[in-house]
Amino acid sequence: MIKRVAFAASVAFSVGMLGPAMAEDIKIAHVYSKTGALEAYAKQSHNGLMMGLEYATKGTMEVGGRKIVVIEKDTQLKPDVARTVLAEAYGDDEADIAVGPVSSGDALAMLPVAEEHEKVLIVEPAVADSVTGENWNRFIFRTGRNSSQDAIANAVALGSKGVSIATLAQDYAFGRDGVAAFKEALQNTGAKLVFEEYAPTDTQDFTASAQRIFDALKNQPGRKVLFVIWAGSNNPIGKIKAMEPERFGVEIATGGNILSAMQAYKALPGMEGATYYYYEIPKNPANDWLVAEHRKRFNSPPDFFTAGGMSAGMAIVEALRKTGGSTDSEKLIAAMEGMEFDTPKGKMIFRPKDHQALQSMYHFKIKVDPNVEWGIPELVRELKIEDMNVPIRN
């Protein structure tokens, strides 16, 4: 009997000694459109996520003695596929946390899957207000900015008394939510939104849309602005600029974008708008590291969605630190509600009531440098968290 007790104690001691080394991996599923029209955005987002996890763990890729493992799922930019692959990630792959997607359409399909599996989904970078609005559930957190944050910042940049504005946006959740939020944000600026135009995401010829916009604006008094809300390929700015909107006294304006899309901004010196990120604007240690490391690894500066992916990675690590490495969903939610965390943009805060990350935006004016391939968004004013009254919509 004594021998059996001694043996059992020896086994228990051995298991205890092996426990920390055998701690289960923390599985993070990145569910995003690796293929499709937003592939460029997706690649940036993934690079940023991996760099954010690396930076926040100081290169160890571990939290609380548990190794972080990232698995990838391709939504193919199809909401039904997005729903299926997220369910696979939570179920078959036993992912503890998911991140993504790029498209708002995919995101809206994914939200109920997170609720069904009772697992946290960090939405990055899908923008539609409805993600943290009417379609939200308590398992959803968003590090990316929402349509209202875009809208408020751009309304500050463009809105003033005597300004007439028309919008051109993609005909799906991203575009329609964006225009609705922009229209609301303009109400106290003195500007008027006089016309809304929506076009399919795969539109190639914008002649008819442009003509309707010009007709709506040309007889308006004062300053006349076409504000474009567009994501991905087929960006209409260059094509509409070629139609010489200045003949009707119409100027083009838009928000920030990825560097390749901002090549069209070189034809628009002095254009004002607001952006989520441009690598030369934020001044903080995380962004300094991101810019230097991205140049070293990819021979280019970090782009719009790289910073977003890094923010998501840093948020995950901070949340896991607060839970002591636990991936229990209820513990994560408790840790993340109201959580402040560092990002390449500076401080973000997950608002408790809708889990939207409150963050700075940047009012810019385009400068053209012949030695730079894109129009450079020079900072006019940083719009800090306290400068923006972002509506709660759920």
TrEMBL record:
Signal peptide: 1-23
Keywords: Amino-acid transport, Signal, Transport
InterPro entries associated with the record: BCAA_transport, Leu-bd, Peripla_BP_I
Domain Leucine-binding protein: start-end pairs: 26-367
Superkingdom to which the source organism belongs: Bacteria
Keyword Signal: yes
Keyword match DNA repair: no
Family that this chain belongs to: Belongs to the leucine-binding protein family.
Name under which the protein is recorded: Substrate-binding domain-containing protein
